[in-house]
Amino acid sequence: MAEENIAVLLDEKRVFKPKEEFVNQTNVKQWMDKHNIKNLDELYKKGENWEWFWEEISKDLVEWYKPYDKVVEWNPPYAKWFVGAQYNIVHDALDKHAKSWRKNKVAFIFEGEPGDVQKWTYNDLYIEVNKLANAMKKLGVKKGDRVGIYMPMIVELPIAMLACAKIGAIHSVVFSGFSANAFRDRVNDSEAKLVITCDAFWRRGKKVYLKEQADVALEETPSVQHVIVCKRTEDAVPWTKGRDLWWNEIIKDMSKECETERLDADDPLFFLYTSGTTGKPKGIIHTHGGYAVGTAYTLKWVFDMKDEDIWWCAADIGWITGHSYIVYAPLILGATSVIYEGAPDWLQPDRWWDIIEKYNVTTLYTSPTSIRLFMRYGEKWPQKHDLSSLRLLGSVGEPINPEAWMWYYKHIGSENCPIMDTWWQTETGHFYISPLPLTPLKPGSATKALPGLSAEVYNEKAEPVQNAGGNLVLTHPWPGMLRGIYKNPERYQETYWSKFKSIYLAGDVTRKDDDGFFWIQGRADDVLNVSGHRIGNSEVESALVSHPMVAEAAVIGKPHELKGESIVSYVVLKEDADPTEELRKALWAHVGTEMGKIARPDEIWFVHDVPKTRSGKIMRRVIRAKALGKDTGDTSTLANPEAVDEIGNAK
Ligand code: WTA
What we know:
Helices cover 33% and strands 23% of the residues. With 651 residues, it is an alpha/beta fold. It has 3 domains: 2-88 and 267-521, ANL, N-terminal domain (Rossmann fold); 90-261, Rossmann fold, CATH 3.40.50.980; 531-648, GMP Synthetase, Chain A, domain 3. It has a 7-stranded mixed sheet, sandwiched between helices. A hairpin with a 7-residue loop joins strand 14 (268-274) and strand 15. Helix 15 crosses helix 17 (402-412). Mean pLDDT is 95; it is low at 1-10. The structure holds 5'-O-[(S)-ethoxy(hydroxy)phosphoryl]adenosine (WTA).
């Protein structure tokens, strides 16, 4: 959606200042007072003394089993944080609360799509995690083993993640909306020994049979020895004797205590696969110590998390937002969070507003796509509810257009709640560019890199540029940063650290204004952002080409009012194939099977050829310009310039 929004963003002059009474009570203001810091500028300055800063910050948030010797060790492109410390994130997320007054505090309020409600205290979670961890140990799962998790938005998903972390196993969660094949590929890449899934879950009033889907994947996952199946419904499921085990049965006789494995602070906690510019997703590695500090710090400051808050991060745990801000950070801070299973507008478009009113949610964190969906339904839906419990709002995943920002501010926040537009990535692990609750806000800007973090906009010569689009780069290592791509150090180096030496390339086109505010404009590379979800153009192309009738495919993103971007594909069929409506439907369904519903193309056009360079590289930039009716630039160097015209006339 990038270029189309720039004009609007450049014109944005409105500034929203938070109220003083509000600011004075925030966690960040209290920290500033304690350190004698008078204003935001001074705070950012303090953050530049980054080793000191992270040391100070970590003190309030985590408890090491054995203290670290050094805050950070930076051997580009590899960083180690809290070097020498012994640690396990589960100590802070669970163990310490179960031994404190928070024992009986509610950690998760769960609401299922059909309306069933569960409340889990920290002690309830502690017991269930321990039992599951003991059962996993009994199955032979050990430190460093990988566990593939394919589960919907139910409390057993965080429980499964925590049980893995507790015994030092590495979880690899795959979004339950991904297809069986996508799950299979990720399980195989991570060589998981164990899979945890569930029978079925609710979505738009219907059951989605996840175990059946998992079984399709499990036909081709040689590393998997056992499958633990959690029960969400009463339905029967297909069963492989000896391999499959019911969750409730295997934990029944397990002890309520399980010692938490003492790990190195930099031992891996999880892999999470994300799209890049090749057809193969990359397994991003995150570790225990730095990730705990980075996620807890950002949630405590940006969303001002206090014990009395009811926090709702309405993302899916299958993505990084859910890992960091439904599971780890809120638990470390001892918060109460809402987890909702189903579709946002089910049964009615006020489902979310009903949930906020019912549980007195104080902070809501969601995506621009959801906000635009609710905008479309109109303000009459939120108006039916008392939303006065809200005090802060948040946005993530894509650039938020000022119109959506204003609607959110007015109709959900009653002009009382600052909006935290947080820019970050699977790779950063936690918020990176984001306001604090005392930052004056400009709708559409994620403002500045948080204290202790540092970003710049570089031109191609690695020079900082102002008021012009450039490459967003992160100029220091940071605690929650990725530690690599699983089994692929070359790709790690190449993707993030080679365009500018020892500087992290984020892959987003960004502009920095006169106040030093960042305006993220969209991806610079061939990665689509559909409803805040990252999907590689080439992954969709590979999925199309894997259909027996397809010879070649090119995929581009087009601006879309609701989803940010829609997926448009140009398909070259094999000679014996007919370009029928039926085939179009079959290809659409095929991408769903290969990748998942979110990747199904909005448009499929049949063409004889797609524009390519002489070396055979598909020129997506040219295709996109042509499809949007823009200047395609010089096409004479293409191997097949005539293919460009066909894009314009595609059927
Ligand atoms: C985009 C999601 C503008 C960006 C947490 C980034 C954003 C990609 C914002 C990462 C934002 C995320 N404003 N763009 N506030 N937040 N993005 O890995 O293009 O799923 O590079 O992480 O989403 O997507 P990912």
